[in-house]
Amino acid sequence: MISDQALILLGGKGQRLRPLTLHLPKPLLPVANRPFLTYLLELLRRHRVREILFSISDAHPEFPKQLRRLPLKGFRWKTILEKKPLGTAGALRHALRHIRGTLMVLNGDVLTDFPLSELRRFHRQKKADVTIATVSVEDPTQYGTVETSRQNRILRFLEKPSWEETFTPDINAGIYLLEPSVVQAIPPDVPCSLEREIFPKLLAEGNRVYAFHSDRYWLDIGTTDRYLQAHRDLLTGKIPMFSAGGKNHAAIASKTRIHPGAEISGFASIGPECTIGAKAWIQDSVLMNRVKVEDGARLKSCIIGPDCRIGHHAMLREGTVLSAKSDIKPYSVL
Predict the structure, then answer these.
(1) Helix, strand, coil % (nearest 5) of the chain?
(2) Which of 27, 242, 290, 320 has the highest CB neighbour count under 10 A?
């Protein structure tokens, strides 16, 4: 039975996004002034998913309370806590008693408008045990590649191949449909990976494992570079499904004050209660809540955590990432 239920994997620690994730879980980091997870919720809502299981760890004790602030109206939802890290497969097995049919599983760090309804129809038509969503990327060495037959049946996987090993640009997109029998067969209370252990085992045993490919937008936001890229793509209209940008590719939150003579160019996301001083210059950057940029400061391709102060005439060069409450002295160059 194809159910209207999805499980979102949110148990990662977000290490590649540090220092941003030291105080806020990766799925709740603001993207164009919205918690990232709201984009996944919007995708699920459009494809008539009505029940969500949030699989979380205890890395951020406030996570369950923070989830309640998301736009969850219309969903039935439940948080399932892992008291120890169980991996992507172990997290599913831990949620088994809540699963009631074919389950959709999504990684909680993917920005996409993937056609989930088509994915479900394909899974049903193929009578698959597992269907894995795939997309093509320019650099597949950062992901798990998937080789398929002409009938879309998966032949083999290779996790993070070298360029010499790469046999396809198609990668695992972190979206799956699984039959309950697959989840039941995962060892309970044991750390286990879907990608490295369970899927290859299913192939070896002759199970019906298929790939469903789409050319829709897809981005893993798990690094600071890709987190910035997500803003660029949203604010420049690259993902029409999600409305994010305002005038001149900028998302400027309420209660933010921009003094005369300040210049904001390229794309920019400026959070609530920020202050941008006179003759400050901000290009292609993300500022979270309550950031103060003093007169004449210059920022290019930066990510600034909440409650930071950038002193007057300081210069923050491309790639600078500041943790919450950082205080950059006047005329500093980073």
Answers:
(1) 25, 35, 45
(2) 27
